[in-house]
Design brief:
Elements (H helix, E strand, L loop, with lengths): L3 E5 L6 E5 L4 E4 L2 H7 L3 E7 L3 E4 L2 E5 L4 E6 L5 E6 L4 E5 L11 E5 L29
Bound molecules: zinc ion (2 copies).
Length: 135
Amino acid sequence: MGEVYTGSCLCGSVTFEADGLSDIWYCHCKQCQKLTGLYISAAGVEKDKLTISGTVNWLPISGKSQSGRCADCGSYMFWDMHGSPSMSVLTGCVDDTSGLTVRGHIYVEEKPSHYEITDGLPQYKGYPEEGTRST
Ligand SMILES: [Zn+2]
Ligand SMILES: [Zn+2]
């Protein structure tokens, strides 16, 4: 049980309520670059603690995961790994991120060269549990 966070897409057709959000990760992988234009900022929520209202289009990203987008405006709101008890909420859609902490950067090995990470937060080559911390 954590704090309840609310959020919405750009047009407001899709809203959600998350009972607790994990720390935020910035993901620099190629997949996130293609999906959003740069990197994503996402926080995790247990699926049974996420309530979504409105029509979400779930689109396959790969055999392993799907993205959830507002059916009206296309805002990229959720990233769902099949079989996982939790999913990621893109923090740009969260109304108020007060109280959330950014843990660091993942998949920095796939980061393009046109920007640098200079915030001093931990950086990981891949996913933290499996990856090697690069700095
Ligand atoms: Zn929308
Ligand atoms: Zn990514």
